[in-house]
């Protein structure tokens, strides 16, 4: 077991995982944003940003107790949102054709 992902529970205890799932490494050159900055950028409340994170729609890095959103996370979320919006438009246009 990799030592970086586990700790010793006690002197004679078993190794227990520190992280539930491994997180990607943060790139040094990647732009990073706080929750407040993401909320301002998308013109939403910070609670909305937390909800997106909890639902797994917006990725983030956990550093101690602080959550940092990388530029790559924002790009992935925007791509997902655009795809979702495109699918909804397509469904609506199909239903418009059927209703004629």
Description:
- The chain has helices at 35-42, 46-54, 71-98, and strands spanning 6-8, 15-17, 32-33, 61-63, 66-70.
- It has 100 residues and is α+β, with helices and mostly antiparallel strands.
- Helix 1 (35-42) crosses helix 2.
- Mean pLDDT is 76; it is low at 1-22.
Overall mean pLDDT stands at 76
Name the overall outline. Answer: elongated
Class inferred from helices and paired strands: alpha+beta
Q: Tell me the number of strands.
A: 5
Portion of residues in beta strands equals 15-25%
**First-last Cα distance:** 63 Å
Number of helices: 3
Helical content (DSSP H or I, runs of 4+): 40-55%
The main sheet comes to:
3 strands, antiparallel
Poorly predicted ranges (pLDDT <50, ≥5 residues)?
Answer: 1-22
SSE string, helices as H and strands as E: EEEHHEEH
Radius of gyration: 20 Å
| Order of strands in the sheet with most strands | 3-5-4
Descriptive terms for the model:
single chain, 100 residues, alpha+beta, three-stranded antiparallel sheet, two-stranded antiparallel ribbon
Layout of SSEs?
Blueprint: E1 6-8, E2 15-17, E3 32-33, H1 35-42, H2 46-54, E4 61-63, E5 66-70, H3 71-98
Antiparallel strand pairs: 1-2, 3-5, 4-5
How would you briefly describe this protein structure?
This protein is α+β, with helices and mostly antiparallel strands and 100 residues long. The protein is built from three helices and five strands; from the N terminus they run βββααββα.
């Amino acid at each position: 077991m990799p030592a970086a992902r586990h700790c010793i529970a006690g002197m004679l205890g078993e190794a227990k995982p520190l992280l539930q799932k491994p997180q990607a490494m943060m790139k040094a050159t990647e732009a990073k944003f706080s929750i407040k900055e993401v909320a301002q950028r998308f013109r939403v409340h910070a609670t909305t940003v937390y909800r997106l994170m909890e639902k797994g729609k917006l990725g983030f890095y956990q550093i101690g107790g602080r959550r940092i959103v990388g530029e790559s996370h924002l790009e992935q979320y925007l791509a997902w949102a655009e795809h979702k919006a495109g699918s909804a438009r397509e469904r609506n246009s199909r239903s418009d054709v059927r209703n004629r």
